[in-house]
Amino acid sequence: MTRFTTRRSSLPKWAAGCVAVAIAAGACDLRPAPGFARGELIFDTCSPCHGKDGAGDESLGAPALAGAMDTYLTAQLERFQAGVRGYHYQDAEGLRMRPMSRALITDDGDVESIVEFLMSLPIVDPPATLAAGDAEAGEEDYTLLCANCHGIDGRGVDNVPDAPSLLHLNDWYIASSLRKYRDGVRGASPGDASGTTMRNAMTSDWTDDRIDDVTAFIMTLRRLPRRIPGPPPEPLPPVDVDPSILPEGVTVAMVQEGQDIFNTPTGICYTCHLRAGVGGALAPNLTDEVWLNIDGEYESIVEIIISGVPQPVEHPGFMAPRAGMPLTDEQVRAVAAYVYTLSR
Predict the structure, then answer these.
(1) CATH code of domain 13-118
(2) Which ranges in 103-220 belong to alpha helices (H)?
């Protein structure tokens, strides 16, 4: 007589999820059309790590997803697929997520479908679990270095996926992410503009205690509902510049192109210098006549954009070469032309 036995699979949660994703991806003809139902099906492969309610699982390093901004969820899945996230050998969680993301068929609506389903989940508010951290001490750093992008209330910025809400996240995930940025485990991949910005803010003097303090402060922010995206900001009026003040070889068309690059995610300059270069907590005002690192002449501006500012004179955010973006030489010269006109 043959005895048949059953036993629990020895596969860990995340490995089981990988198998399930592979099966789902291979059965394209059985899947629902793109949309909520497709997303619900896909989420069955995410829930072993992120939880049925999307509240996350600390033991697996899987963060809460319920309550996140749709633009941010989409951007991060695309970054995992492109290898911009999950590239570092010390990022165990990212390395686990990267193949999972690649099982999603972008051209077939999988990313949009899973994000649509995630946005339907009731918002969860994971409780604080970290005993360390002084919220009062963390408030100063948050206000100076974080609020410019993430908002003074922690709700992020409308329609800007690289300035997401920090509410409804696990405190252990916030702290571990900040440590990864500090240590280059996250945000050091070429072309990752938002990662470069985060690494700029997370300079090497951010001790574990300082990170715990900022995390503790973020957890004190009021757990507001998910932000409803507002309309994008009004386009800036075209630059009105007198051609006679432009250096040799610089044209009005270059200035206008530079304005577009500077004030959109293509160039990421506005993240620190704010729109139209008025300056903020992270970077100086470019519209006055005060130049901290250079003499303000056109070629000097070109050079500093190319080389970056590793040690700022006054502001805490260093600037990566070419702002951490794959800007061509022509684009750099266009941005420099725009910056040159701001103070003249």
Answers:
(1) 1.10.760.10
(2) 110-118, 135-141, 147-150, 171-183, 193-201, 208-218
